[in-house]
Design goal:
about 325 residues; alpha/beta; 9-stranded mixed β-sheet
């Protein structure tokens, strides 16, 4: 079975790994890349996405989207994780390609109308594009098959604050809009993505089986790995953004828990994904909220093999 997806992204090194993973997967049909600010400013995210499409030798539209949070000041970005260029400061040449003229939100709406009920939105950055698309087209949830989100932290600490993961924290009000919409949401947060650290040998293997795309990931990941290895005895890194794509291909690798979700938008709980598993509360404050499916476990060995075997195609 082939899954049509729109990949909403803020490239970003782990975004690049996930994008190439989606490009390589025979089960995935990438209709377009919609970009958003997050790891880097939105202009850089859009140009980086063009570079990744060009490197892969594909003809896939790239759109530029939301450039700041729904509420509050401009982001400070994550250059300390992804480098000044979003690619680990490897001086990758800019793409000669041009952006699709549509905004990311409009592209999502147009494709949803073209393929009603067939598209999964895979969102691996802040959720401003999806929130805007919902405001522009209130019927969007009826047109979308599902939304797979890399973000949040249901039962583990956050990575920006004690309670918040970066993608949700970066645009908490947009996340609240998205999680409050009546569509199927599958969340892949730090509960599973931090549970699988990848050693340098994994990155080397990607380069061996795919010298072009895997080679790019290996080169870009050196900066990224240095960040994640601070204070550790061995080098590690995490490829958060590929998990929601892997679930489309092999859902049996994941244990999912259904329940009600609320998103914190206050000063202290900004970006918190507050999750109540089904049948754990009678509080109307929770039961009136929309339900989500949250990944709580993943098969480490099988997931790693899936990444490598897909890159080797």
């Amino acid at each position: 079975m082939t899954h049509k997806i729109i990949l909403d992204t803020d490239p970003g090194i782990d975004d690049a790994m996930a994008i190439f993973f989606a490009f390589q997967a025979k089960e995935i049909d990438v209709l377009g890349l919609t970009t958003v600010y997050g790891n880097v400013p939105v202009e850089m995210a859009a140009q980086n996405a063009l570079s990744l499409v060009e490197l892969a030798g594909l003809d896939i539209p790239v759109c530029k989207g939301v450039g700041r949070p729904w509420v509050g000041p401009e982001s400070t970005y994550a250059h300390f994780v992804h480098g000044d260029d979003g690619f680990g400061n490897i001086d990758h040449p800019p793409s000669s390609r041009t952006l699709d003229p549509r905004s990311s939100a409009q592209f999502i709406i147009d494709k949803a109308r073209e393929f009603p009920g067939e598209i999964t939105i895979v969102a691996v950055g802040p959720l401003g594009n999806l929130a805007l698309a919902l405001r522009l087209e209130p019927e969007l949830p009826k047109l979308i098959k599902a939304v797979n989100i890399m973000g949040g932290a249901a039962f583990v600490p956050g990575n920006v604050t004690p309670v918040a993961e970066a993608n949700i924290w970066n645009d908490a009000h947009a996340a609240d809009i998205v999680f409050s919409a009546d569509w199927t949401i599958n969340m892949f947060g730090l509960d599973v993505t931090y549970d699988v650290p990848f050693a340098p040998q994994f990155i080397d293997t990607l380069a061996e089986v795919n010298p072009i795309l895997g080679g790019f990931v290996a080169k870009a990941s050196q900066f990224y790995m240095e960040f994640y290895s601070q204070g550790k005895d061995e080098q590690v890194c995490f490829f958060h953004d590929a998990y929601p794509i892997a679930h489309l291909m092999h859902p049996e690798l994941f244990e999912m828990t259904n329940g009600n979700m609320r998103i914190g938008t206050g000063e202290l709980d900004k970006g918190q994904t507050m999750f109540a598993p089904a049948n754990t509360t009678m509080s109307p404050l929770w039961l009136e909220s929309q339900k989500s499916n949250v990944a709580t476990q993943v098969d480490h060995e099988a997931l790693t093999e899936l990444f490598v075997s897909t890159y080797a195609l």
